[in-house]
Amino acid sequence: MVDIKKFDIATTVTDSLIDVFDMMLSMGLQLSDDQSQTISKDERIVGSVSVAGMVMGCINIEVSKKFSHIMTSALLGITPEEVEGGDDVKDVIREICNIVGGNLKSAFCDTGLICELSPPSFTTGDDFKIEALNTVRHERYVFNYNEHIVIVEVGIRVSEVEEGADAHQQKIEYRPVNIGQVEEFDIRTPLVDQITEVFDMMLSMQIVSSEENLKSSIDADRLVGAISFVGPLMGNFSIHVSRKFSHQMTASMLGIELEEVEGGDDVKDVISELCSIVGGNLKSKFCDAGMRCELSSPSMTTGTNFKIEAKDMVRYDSFSFFCGGEPIVVDLVLKVDDQIIADDQLTESKADESGNLQTDIDSLLAVEAVSEPQPSSGDKWASTTDDGARATAGGCTLTEAEKLAFILDIPLEVVVELGRNKMQINELYNLGPGSVVEFKNLAGEPLDILVNGTLIAKGQVMVQGEKYGIKIVDILSRMERIRSMI
Predict the structure, then answer these.
(1) Could you tell me which residue ranges the Flagellar motor switch protein FliN-like C-terminal domain spans (predicted)?
(2) Which of 194, 227, 288, 391 stands the most exposed, by the fewest C-beta atoms within 10 Å?
(3) Roughly what angle, to the nearest 10 degrees, separates helices 188-203 and 243-254?
């Protein structure tokens, strides 16, 4: 088992963030010499992704609101003043979170620590703090671009699965989740029942469900505990309470007076336990219904002015409760993993086509094999006729022409590739009439000829009449060309 305390997080995070700022935003980000730097109390935005599997935790990337607009303008090729609303900003932060988080996830998986990544969530405001709960390692990296600061925080631990357990030793091939199933699933009943039971059994507190949305009734100084679902079913469960009530919850659970609640560790333990219990029970309900997911470790956000959002979810549910006049709000957002949906749809759409093509190719390859002279071996093989038109195998007789007919009418896309190169996103945005895009190919070099995306030949451009053509100078053998389509 890999020692998570010795795992090289710094290299992956640093290289990933510097590369993405360079390639996507054309910004020369540098690791700061002063790792104690913080972003001022001005409004800021934090993109967060959770990790679940053999590694559990979260990754937070924080920038000021001002710098987020500069980043967005660099990507879109506009001025910071032209950046309108928050959607474009969140899209940029989301891409950076996905790239940095995805590279760190890949680094974990490469060492056998199989894990998955949640969709990003966004926290905005000018007074808040996000902490990963129940983790054994916390890393913080500060970067600079001119006077601007980017902070990356990583809190992780290894999950408490039995070492050598099969469930996490390899990537699980989940069955895709149906969006309609997520939309129609009865969330209210199990969630309300679970919250009521946990407050009763764990905290000895009686709560009452309310039809009102009580989020605005919670004191400004508040606390949000959250836990994420990762897998074919993705999402987030969060509970919102005032800081004052979180102390009451802690005192009730520990059996002490309110005045005896000291520091924040006891509060964190209570919030972590509550999120883990409710999240774990919801996960079981989802899995029992065929909506598979894994659970991340909890996180906690505290402050007096902040807002937490999740984008592009299938469901947004909010439930309110009262406990002795104190409002409690529980949010649950869910979506289906886009990649699993896309892969499933692609597989289904190509199933018939690929199946038929494979059969046709197999037929042609059989013809190629049979049409070559074969040694006599009883009745198993019959020699071809003089014109090679007929072959017999296992008592079944088909002409070569009949077998070739299976595939001769299949349309194929032929592409002649002039060249390839890479460009940054801002260069793409700046292209216009008259722009020249250079390729790495040298003048006079043979061009690649691709059939259905597969390289099968090289050739030189020719002009015949008023049309372009290409003269083949090198090509795969007939058998290799057919096999390249398999």
Answers:
(1) 407-476
(2) 288
(3) 60
